[in-house]
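TICKET #2291
ISSUE: user wants both folds in one file
ATTACHMENT 1:
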Amino acid sequence: MPRVTLENLADYARYVLAQAESCSANYPLTRAVRLPGLTLTAQLNPGGLADAVASGFIAARDDEAPADACRIFVAHPGIDGIAAPESWGNSPFTQHGFASRLAEAGLRGNHYHDLDFWQFYDPDRRVGVQLMTAEDSFPPWEPGAPLRPFLHWEYAARGMRLAHAGSLGIGGKGVLLAGSGGAGKSGTVVAGLLNGLDSVGDDYVLIDLAEDVTAHPLFATLKQDPEGFRRLGLKERLGSHGPLNWQGKYQFRVDDIAARPIPGRLDMIALMVPHISGGEASSITPVSRKDAMIALAPSGIAQMPGERESGFRFFSDLTRRLPCYRLSLGTRPDEIAGTIADFITRGAP
């Protein structure tokens, strides 16, 4: 096949999907994980990505019976019958044009040029393929949230979204934490977990607006830079903590530090935008819906390929439904956690 362009993109996607399915008996491993309303099955080779799929999710509880299943093939040369991925041609590439052309064909997709890394998904059949040049040739962020675009496309088809946000809660109620890198979001989630609060995840949580605003767990990963790791006492808590990841952060699991089993959902009562204030005590004050939208939507849309327009509508609806606040972070993790717990249990200050 010639190099890929917008003109032959849909044909290439169908070819890659058909090739991956036709070789289904040639994948050495099958990994299955139960997620909210979904069983995700991945067929792939042993290695780092297989390990990430096996350990990178928070499995749904037994009483949360999945209604659907999706199947993802992680394909590359070395698996019998799989051809090397093609490269993008000389024609201009834009994410919007790429996604629109696939959507016209009823498909979804993503392309990372530096590695000739392709992801295609057929939402009608719930079948996807991740095509790579080799079994370890994936972007460095992939192990932290494995197969994330496929889950984004699957849940978006149901009117749900993966939000780039953290979460903390108590007694089944919670707050959503949104903000850019360095704002203190991840440190706040860890501080809460270390001081008795619950979480359904940091970085990415699944949001459903069908009735109330509910957040559900998907990915198990937490991350902290060395300074935060030291300040929060995680070295003593976790012992062995492995090497730094591609962002220069330590990576570990939510349930490594959670006081209780991860809840299957939290009913969100507010959206909070954390920032490091420099003051000793934490405080919570109202913030405009516009500022909350700026903190939540851009990264949540930029990091999720396709579904751009529906994403803006979704996050706009979410910020209309939830009261929005600025969380000015103090210096002590226990005091931060206590401030959030008081807010959830007693209501807005």
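ATTACHMENT 2:
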Amino acid sequence: MSNILLLEDLPEIRAWLKVLVHQVFPQAQISEAARVHDALELVSAVKFDLALVDLGLPDGSGVDVVAALREQQPEAQSVVVTIHDDDEHLFPALQAGAFGYVLKEQARELIAEQLNRMSQGEPPLSPSIARRVIAYFAAQARPQAKDTIPHVQLTDRENEVLLRVAKGFTLPEIGVQLNLSRHTIADYVKQIYRKLNVSSRAEAALEAQRLGLFGRSR
């Protein structure tokens, strides 16, 4: 990789991403942008091998940059690096031409490893994202009847905790909101994960959406 576009509006995140990119691609020249407008101008002026693209930006969505790269530089690869792990962000990005989709909450070492494996043609995907993509296409091929979906019964308190986990609150923050200790919240989270058969915050958020908790919170 000789030329890399880094689109991220938060300076502190852009800084550690830049360090990470230099670790994986030591010889690369990095062009930085904090807005969609600036990134689109760079795409028109510079030939890129790789773009690391955030989605939620002050002047729009990074999906527009992914689409512009696919149209103007089809040999360039775009990898989304974002906090958004929901279908509403994931699938439009993939449809626009993203080669990979990585969550910022991952360990940086894992992100570096995933980027490094791109040389072998392996798309960088966070584990929970890869499972969701597989599940999506499996469902398209063989739709599941409603009455075959297992019903999971959570208590009202477990639903309250799950909703806050899905919204990104930390365990201490949830404890303050519900007037419970951090350890009690941790026990609830373990029990919720066991009941839902999930192992990550992203998967828990997906289950919260499936159970309709976001709709109830409005």
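RESOLUTION: both attachments delivered.
EXTRA DETAIL ON ATTACHMENT 2: The beta strands are 3-7, 29-33, 50-53, 56-57, 60-61, 77-82, 100-103.
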